[in-house]
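Before going further, learn to read the protein records used in this course. Taken together, the tokens spell out the fold as the letters spell out the chain. A record is reproduced here so that you can trace the correspondence yourselves:

***
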Amino acid sequence: MYQSASSVILICPTGFGYDPETSATNAFQRQVEDKEVKRLAAEEFDGLLDALRNCGIGITVLDPVDRNAPNAVFPNNWFSTHDDGTAVIYPMHTPSRRVERDPDLKATLRREGFAVRQVIDLSAWEKKGLVLEGTGSLVLDRVKHHAYACFSPRTTETALNAWCDIMGYVPIAFTATMDGTLSGQHIYHTNVVMSIGTRFALVCLEALPYPAERLVVEEELARSGREVVPISLEQMHSYVGNMLELRGSLAAAASSETAKDSFLFLSERAFKVLKPFQRLALERHAHLMPVPIPTIETVGGGSVRCMLAEVFLDRSAPPVSAKKDPSKIP
């Protein structure tokens, strides 16, 4: 079992733009009066593709189901894949994001050569007011089967617990706010607060206003055997928490003094605000791969990690174990 994937799915940003529906719960979004937003987003998207190819990461690029969807470039929020051959479709907070979901996801994944055995569709949970936006809401320790999640309008407690029951994970839930106070606005997605790699865990503990929750998160991450790398609130606001480790080819890392096949993708903005000790800590475990995506970050309110839907499906996956019926939960 791997913590990090060696292949990702990306969605072309054909309809990219500012979304007032999602901005109500995403304090990172900013409206920009620029007629070139779509073109700039497309160029930034292509730059990320080039960086992934250079590291030997497997890439699948899909067209959006709705070509006008402004947030389609962030596919990890509506589906995830798992190494038992399962794909999960998630309940989304806003109607503008629900149109991104592919109702024929199994057929799409199989067409692309992935051995998906079953799709668990949780989108009906929306009718009960339950929301869980994929690996935006969930930061997964796939080895220990721990699911870290901060509550927000996009991550409800009942949905989190039900998902963990279905998928066999232990929930580690907490509150996180933009200014680290109890009165602050809830951070919309957990993957802005933290990132878990194979041998490291990066987290903004300053965003957690409850000391007890802060202690639990820090201790669980340390107990997993990973080096814990703390970041500040200011750095979190520059998307330092929104990074993703992927496994690439050793050949792509041949020029490095340390032969690692782990690559840590983050935005150029996030890279520039890393402290020297943080950079050194992360470089012990992975090659840092900064990518410039200022338009997507500013207008879309998400960074590099949000653009990457990890693929843990094998080309010849074993039979899937029985899962609970999601229609009966909660």
